[in-house]
């Protein structure tokens, strides 16, 4: 499975923009029991997108929301253990806060795309989109609720945003809202309009393995090749009105 995901990632990046499969043309949008739906995998995994404003014709792919193993409980190894595997020029995202240092190779993030984690007691997720070649680290707490993020299997582009870059669409397990990181907010579902909270730049950086060894000898390094059995159910947050009120982009 892990090698097939690397192949999928390679194929996605090697296909020209014009050749990328249109989600709309491939029937990923449909209506069911009066709701507007977006294919997510099996019958229990489709997204309800009644309040989606994005244009259907600008969605690509539609691989399924559990195709990429967005880690829920990541495992790590020491810097000394990891040093046997990584060349000095390997690119990493590294997060450092308090006494904690977590390092995620871009190679592994290409496979997972999202890693849900905790740094110095704060829930975060590290993300990397291979199409846009953009990585970042975000907070997962909103008020007193913690959210868990995954990859929807879709990408989206807008000619007016980031020069038309094609970027992945994320989702959260607690409300099944869709999020587009290129505009830093939820674009459908209960949390539509709520902003993604990027972790302060002082706490993370896009760097190399050599720099990590020099600056962060106590770093915990994400183990390669991880996978997990996808959960059949997940806790749901029914009332998120306070989050929408206090964390929406309109309140900035």
Describe the structure.
The protein has 252 residues and is α+β, with helices and mostly antiparallel strands. The chain has a domain at 68-227. Helices cover 15% and strands 33% of the residues. It has helices at residues 2-14, 79-82, 106-112, 209-215, 241-247, and strands at residues 29-32, 35-38, 47-48, 59-61, 76-78, 91-97, 100-105, 114-119, 122-129, 134-139, 141-142, 145-146, 149-156, 167-172, 178-180, 185-188, 204-208, 220-222. The strands form five sheets. Strands 4-13-14-15-16 form a five-stranded antiparallel β-sheet, with no helix packed on it.
Descriptors:
252 residues; five-stranded mixed sheet; 5 helices; 15% helix
Q: Runs with pLDDT <50, length 5+?
A: 1-14
The helix fraction, in percent, is 10-25%
Shape: globular
Structural class: alpha+beta
* Percent of sequence in beta strands: 25-35%
Beta strand count: 18
Strand order of the largest sheet: 4-13-14-15-16
Specify Rg, calculated over alpha carbons: 18 Å
Order of helices and strands: HEEEEEHEEHEEEEEEEEEEHEH
